[in-house]
C-alpha cells in the first residue's frame, strides 16, 4: 500500500457507507499482495475475486477464515462467468 496514491481500504469503507441502506454488494478483484489488507474490510455479503496462482490467491489460501467475504478464484477466461454469477442482475447498454 505504500506505493499507492490512495488507500483502497478507505475507498472500500466509503463505498460501504454509501450503499449501507441499499441491498448492494461489492465485488473486489485483485491479484497482488497489496490487495490483501483492503479485502479484509469486505463484508459477508461481498465477493473477493483473487486471481488464481498470484500473490493475493496465495495469501487468502494460507488462512481463508480471515476473509469475511465469499471468495472465488479466477483465471483469465473464467472471470466473465464468475462476474455474471456474482451479480444479481445484468444491465445491458442499448
UniProtKB/TrEMBL annotation:
This is Uncharacterized protein. It comes from Vigna angularis var. angularis. GO terms for molecular function: phosphatase activity. It comes from the Eukaryota. PANTHER family: LP01149P, PHOSPHATASE, ORPHAN 1, 2. It holds the Pfam family Put_Phosphatase.
Amino acid at each position: 500500500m505504500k506505493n499507492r496514491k490512495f488507500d483502497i481500504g478507505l475507498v472500500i469503507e466509503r463505498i460501504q457507507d454509501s450503499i449501507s441502506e441499499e441491498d448492494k454488494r461489492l465485488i473486489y478483484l485483485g491479484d497482488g499482495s497489496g490487495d490483501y489488507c483492503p479485502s479484509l474490510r469486505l463484508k459477508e455479503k461481498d465477493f473477493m475475486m483473487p486471481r488464481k496462482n498470484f500473490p493475493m490467491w496465495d495469501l487468502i489460501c494460507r488462512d481463508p477464515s480471515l476473509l469475511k467475504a465469499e471468495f472465488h478464484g479466477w483465471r483469465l477466461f473464467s472471470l466473465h462467468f464468475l462476474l455474471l454469477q456474482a451479480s444479481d442482475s445484468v444491465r445491458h447498454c442499448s
